[in-house]
Amino acid sequence: MATPSSSPENTDAAHRLGAVRSRIAAAAARASRDAGDILLLAVSKGQTAAAVAALADFGQRHFGENYLQEGLSKIETLRQTRPQTPGLVWHFIGQLQSNKTRDVAEHFDWVHTVDRAKLVERLSSQRPFHAPPLEVCVQVKLGEEASKGGVSPTDLPALLEAVDAAPRLRLRGLMALPPAEIEEARQRRWFAELRHLYDRARLHHPTLDTLSMGMSADLEAAILEGSSLVRVGTALFGERLQSMP
Ligand SMILES: *Cc1c(COP(=O)(O)O)cnc(C)c1O
Asked: Of all protein residues, whose CA lies closest to atom 5 belonging to ligand 1?
């Protein structure tokens, strides 16, 4: 690993990354879990390519983007300016319109927001043959007011079957973005619901190994309920600088 320079930006990145890793370790200890079983996904939407590079200097490898154009341009910038940093893994975690699937299939390693059969067909047929299968988490809608995407728990089994059957996709997990709650007990209730769906889904799909839940404000609750992948933005990068929907 390259020796990071000690610019203020890098010092901040090191502190924030250390603090988030400590939170993950503490929550894992409370849950009697191994912190090594929890993957940290750095959500870099609204952050610069330089901020991504600063975290990469400290060993962070998984990055998540919500907006396609912003994500594609960052992936390309990192590839050109940091050829010495191989192994970056890019996750698409934004709402996905079906006319935008090709860019996800061609440029990302993971997608967390598959919530309907039409996306499954398109992503699988558009995944390039020289690339490994696209890693897929199915997004589940929890709670009535839960805003945006997600398949209903009722329609989840059929969608999981479709992903599993798609030749160029690999079914990895479930993801949810539950309604925001302040109290840990209430946060845990949503995450427990997803965990329950996950446990049931694994009976039919034993290759499932990823429970994508928890963000800056609620990663502890998510880890206590079994999260294996936390998606953390502001706690790692500070406030978002820009947003490009
Ligand atoms: C923005 C975002 C995150 C990260 O949120 P923070 O509160 O900044 O940690 C995680 N998951 C998804 C789907 C997001 O859109």
From this structure: 233
Backbone angles phi, psi at 121, to 5 degrees: -60, -45
7 φ/ψ angles, rounded to the nearest 5 degrees: -65, 160
Residue nearest to ligand 1 atom 12, measured at CA: 93
Q: In this predicted model, what pLDDT tens digit does every residue of 2-11 receive, in sequence order?
A: 455 566 667 7
Rounded CA separation 155/170 (Å)? 19
HSE-CB at 183 with a 13 A cutoff on CA atoms is: 3
Query: Where do runs of H (alpha helix) occur along 36-180?
Result: 49-57, 68-81, 101-107, 117-126, 156-165
DSSP for 179-191 reads PP-SSHHHHHHHH
Pick the closest to residue 27 from 15, 14, 40 (CA basis): 40
What does the pLDDT look like over 60-76, one tens digit per residue? 999 999 999 999 999 99
Residue 213 near ligand 1, beta carbon < 6 Å:
no
Please give the structure tokens belonging to residue 147: 């805003």
